[in-house]
TrEMBL record:
It holds the Pfam family Glyoxalase. The keyword Iron applies. The lineage of its organism: Bacteria, Pseudomonadati, Bacteroidota, Flavobacteriia, Flavobacteriales. Keywords: Dioxygenase, Iron, Metal-binding, Oxidoreductase, Repeat. Its EC number is 1.13.11.27. This is 4-hydroxyphenylpyruvate dioxygenase.
Length: 377
């Protein structure tokens, strides 16, 4: 795997890489049409845009689904031997692009390149009757890329080359998902600090939280994590690496089956996690469960919360508190055949942290799933 050569003394005291938010997340998948149906049916996304043979593409087809500020692009190859197909063959379905919305994609790209990034795509202007978009991209861990998207001069549906995709006969109701809260990357042994430095030097992020193997461990497994955030806090990328344990950790399992570093999970925010999780469960989304005894001490640990404990216990929703408030969170099982990518549903009631108090119970739940898969040892 190629890694970037990082400059040694880059000044990151100012936000030289202003980012407005997550523009879209693109997954390479084996069957984009069926994946779009899944995310609509199970997660409540809506039909939005489409590109493929009908729009002049010969090698791939993409469906874009949307829910509030979340845009997922689901892309599949239309023939053998493509780079997309090779990506799917190696990794299975997974995240290829984490697109970042910026005011000026060329400046963002040039700044990143000057600071040691590896180019994925030089700035290019894409135009149609609705205006123009400028996009440029760099590599990050594994084969994952960041694409800078500048769309201030565009009034179209999604991007030039896409057409509006409407399905008047089938549009399941949204489930209350609002925006991408954070995205977690799994990297190889002793690579966490390398990628922390990459985000600091190349993109101007800051390390806002760190967890070592004492914070994130069970009797059998452990990992370490550092949370990187951009200047305005709208983009947060926790980065995990394995740590020594008696058995194989979830990060090691991911690396084995994804066969590289990559995005482990996408955390999406809701304003009503109880209703959202009820809706998702009723549509077949499967979640990790912690033992019922977890809830015996919740109020002692986190203090008074607005929600009743009973529905949280019924649904398996976890609670944690920091100095700013508390949060509620729950994690799906992997949404692909391989035990790789999954989703987190999160509701923040002031808390800015990531559920440190839930780590032990959560990772024990993951270990139970690993045991069933035969991948814990």
């Amino acid at each position: 795997m190629e890694t970037s050569t990082l400059p040694k003394n880059t000044n990151t005291s100012e936000d030289f890489m202003p980012i407005n938010g997550t523009d879209y997340v693109e997954l390479y998948v084996g069957n984009s049409k069926q994946a779009a149906h899944y995310y609509k049916s199970a997660f409540g996304f809506q039909s939005y845009a489409q590109a493929g043979l009908e729009t002049g593409l010969k090698d791939r087809e993409s469906y874009v689904v949307v829910q509030d500020k979340i845009r997922l692009v689901l892309t599949s190859p239309l023939k053998s031997g493509t780079e997309i197909g090779k990506h799917i063959d190696k990794h299975g379905d997974g995240v290829k692009v984490v697109a970042l919305w910026v005011d000026d994609a060329t400046i963002a790209y040039n700044n990143a390149m000057e600071r040691g990034a590896k180019s994925y795509m030089e700035p290019q202007v894409e135009e149609d009757k609705d205006g123009q978009v400028v996009r440029a991209g760099i590599y990050t861990y594994g084969e994952t890329v960041h694409i800078f998207v500048e769309r201030k001069d565009y009034n179209g549906t999604f991007l030039p080359g896409f057409k509006k995709w409407e399905t008047p006969d089938y549009n399941p109701e949204p489930t209350g998902l609002k925006f991408v809260d954070h995205m977690v990357g799994n990297v190889g042994w002793n690579k966490m600090n390398h990628w922390v430095k990459f985000y600091e030097d190349v993109l101007g992020f800051k390390n806002i939280l760190s967890f070592d193997d004492k914070d994130i461990s069970t009797e059998y497994t452990a990992l370490m994590s550092k949370v990187m955030s951009n200047g305005n806090g709208r983009i947060k990328f926790p980065i995990n690496e394995p740590a020594e344990g008696q058995k194989k950790s979830q990060v090691e399992e991911y690396l084995d089956f994804y066969e590289d570093e990559g995005v482990q999970h996408i955390a999406v925010a809701t304003d009503n996690i109880i209703q959202t999780v009820r809706d998702l469960r009723s549509r077949g989304v499967e979640f990790l469960r912690v033992p019922a005894t977890y809830y015996d001490a919740v109020t002692d640990r986190v203090g008074k919360i607005d929600e009743d404990i009973a529905p949280l216990k019924e649904l398996g929703i976890l609670v944690d508190r920091d100095d700013e408030g508390y949060l509620l969170q729950i994690f799906t099982k992997p949404v692909e055949p391989r035990p790789t990518m999954f989703f987190e549903i999160i509701q923040r009631k002031g808390a800015q942290s990531f559920g440190k108090g839930n780590f032990k119970a959560l990772f024990e739940a993951i270990e139970r799933e690993q045991e069933l898969r035969g991948t814990l040892h």
